[in-house]
Design brief:
With 282 residues, this protein is α/β, with parallel strands linked by helices. It has two domains: 2-173, HUPs (Rossmann fold); 186-280, Pantoate--beta-alanine Ligase, Chain: A,domain 2. 39% of the residues lie in helices and 20% in strands. The chain has ten helices and nine strands. The strands form two sheets. A six-stranded parallel beta sheet has the order 1-4-3-2-5-6, with helices on both faces. A three-stranded antiparallel beta sheet has the order 7-8-9. Strand 5, helix 7 and strand 6 (169-173) form a beta-alpha-beta unit.
């Protein structure tokens, strides 16, 4: 595995691969790898001739008072795990390389970024779209793999790729969960034991909603209040949002027409967690 840390060098490597007619799979990450990240890498490894994984904690997607400075980092461990999976290049640019002095160009994906996390983290998805576009230009992938836990992020990237006619296939992969159901996240390391148990309230609420839909309940005004109550009843927890949305547009819906995505976010202690689940009515 090669470690590349400069945008121009990464681009030169990718261009050489493309000239050899090799397909490039790409997994963008902020590091501190867990099984969720590794599952994306394994998928990408199977799909392409070459696999690039980026490791970059992107400052432009963090707002004032958020956890940029304390976001968990362990680059040596990450490199070892990436090597085990069979990554060809671990791409590790710095903030100064990605946003040099005088930088002033940003990407805004309008409608799909407004609600859910976009409502409570203004500017977050502008930072996400901008850095992903830059990474696509540097890595030149044929295929980019994202996890469905950050479902709104996935929708934003798909919209950007479609709107800007980018020659990249964007694939979302299923959420990887701990044995007890908690969605894997680098931020789970912030939770103390009591908060870790309380965090299961999100999965409990989503599972109940999925079962209710499978049993024929398709009304948002019956599903969402129960989800809200379940999350609020967990100790150390305060709700950010619980919304039933169209899987493609992320607009809120009143009924489950075949399928809908239930998205939730909550603070458990001082840690903000997100999760989601596809609801399907037979």
């Amino acid at each position: 595995m090669e470690i590349v840390d400069h945008p121009r060098e990464m681009q030169e490597v990718a261009l050489a691969w493309r000239q050899q007619h090799q397909t490039i799979s790409f997994v963008p990450t902020m590091g501190y790898f867990h099984e969720g990240h590794l599952s994306l890498m394994r998928y990408g490894r199977k799909q392409g001739d070459r696999l690039v994984v980026s490791l970059f904690v992107n400052p432009t997607q963090f707002g004032p008072g958020e956890d940029l400075d304390r976001y968990p980092r362990d680059p040596e461990r990450d490199a070892a795990l990436a090597r085990e999976v069979g990554v060809d290049v671990l791409y590790t640019p710095t903030a100064a390389q990605m946003y040099p002095e005088g930088y002033q160009t940003y990407v805004t994906v309008e409608e799909v970024s407004r609600g859910l996390c976009g409502a409570t983290r203004p500017g977050h998805f502008r930072g996400v779209a901008t850095v992903v576009l830059k990474l696509f230009n540097q890595v030149l992938p044929h295929l980019a793999v994202f996890g469905e836990k950050d479902y709104q992020q996935l929708a934003v990237i798909k919209r950007m790729v479609s709107d800007l006619d980018m020659p990249v296939e964007v694939v979302g992969r299923p959420i990887v969960r701990e044995a007890d159901g908690l969605a894997m996240s680098s931020r789970n390391t912030y939770l103390n034991p009591k908060e870790r148990r309380a965090a299961l309230g999100l999965f409990k609420a989503l599972t109940w909603a999925k079962d209710a839909a499978a049993s024929g309940e398709n009304q948002a005004d019956k599903i969402v209040p129960e989800v809200i109550q379940t999350i609020k009843s967990a100790p150390h927890t305060r709700l950010d949002y619980a919304v039933l949305v169209d899987p493609d547009t992320l607009q809120s819906v009143d009924t489950v027409q075949g399928s809908a995505r239930l998205a939730v976010a909550a603070w458990v202690g001082d840690t903000r967690l997100i999760d989601n689940m596809l609801l399907e009515v037979p």
